[in-house]
Amino acid sequence: MKQHTLPALLALSLLVGCSSSEEIVPDVPPSELYSEAQVSLQSGNWLTAIEQLEALDSRYPFGAYSEQVQLDLIYAYYKNDDLALGLATIERFTRLNPTHEKIDWVLYMRGLTHMAQDRNFMHDLLNMDRNDRDPEPVKAAFKDFKRLLERYPNSPYAEDAEMRMFALKNRLAEYDLATADFYLRREAWIAAINRCQELQKTYPDTEAARKSLAIQLEAYQQLGLQEAIERTTELMVLNPI
């Protein structure tokens, strides 16, 4: 008997442990749980709001609050820096509700979430220059905001999206400038020149484009290309920093 008692007790304790861990959010009516989630959202208690909204989403996936719960989760994930979950929820919502009345907001939030992926905690904390970090999230955000402006030009989020695109364009230009400088320091003169010219063509109205002329000039000087040196010097006079 004793040999069977211990395993039975262990199994019982595991069952009790599992049941208690699953009850993070009490089993209450959906209307009550949704109201509690709204209170958590309004007070900025993002983690609690996420737990409550996720509980609603899993228990009542086709309930009356289904669409709004997903919209609230997109916002809560963004505020709580759960960016991967936010993008996954945006993808799910867009796939299931392509003509929803708030789809412009969803696209706007996708842009914001991609922008947030570009943030670097130490960069924000120490105000460090990290323009050399991977710009893929920036490119994705720029694409999201551009799509918003093209599809929903009268959206209340269009103006802010346009301003963010301007900032993102400068961020991408600074990345190209950092890359050109990297090539210059490695004495890869042709690569530096090519990156500078690509920057000037893609982002001609940025400060980074004007700064790239100095890198381009030095590379031409190292190669001894006199005609290109004179042409770049003239461009620097016409486009002062």
UniProtKB/TrEMBL annotation:
InterPro entries listed in its UniProt record: BamD, BamD-like, TPR-like_helical_dom_sf
Signal peptide (residue range): none
Localization annotation: Cell outer membrane
One Pfam family of this chain: YfiO
Domain Outer membrane lipoprotein BamD-like: 27-233
Keyword Signal: yes
Key words, A-Z: Cell outer membrane, Lipoprotein, Membrane, Palmitate, Signal
GO cellular component: a single term: Bam protein complex
One BP annotation, GO: protein insertion into membrane
Membrane topology listed for this record: Lipid-anchor
PROSITE patterns for this protein: PROKAR_LIPOPROTEIN (PS51257)
Keyword Signal: yes
Stated family: Belongs to the BamD family.
Quaternary structure (record): Part of the Bam complex.
Function statement: Part of the outer membrane protein assembly complex, which is involved in assembly and insertion of beta-barrel proteins into the outer membrane.
Alphabetized HAMAP family for the sequence: OM_assembly_BamD
Protein name: Outer membrane protein assembly factor BamD
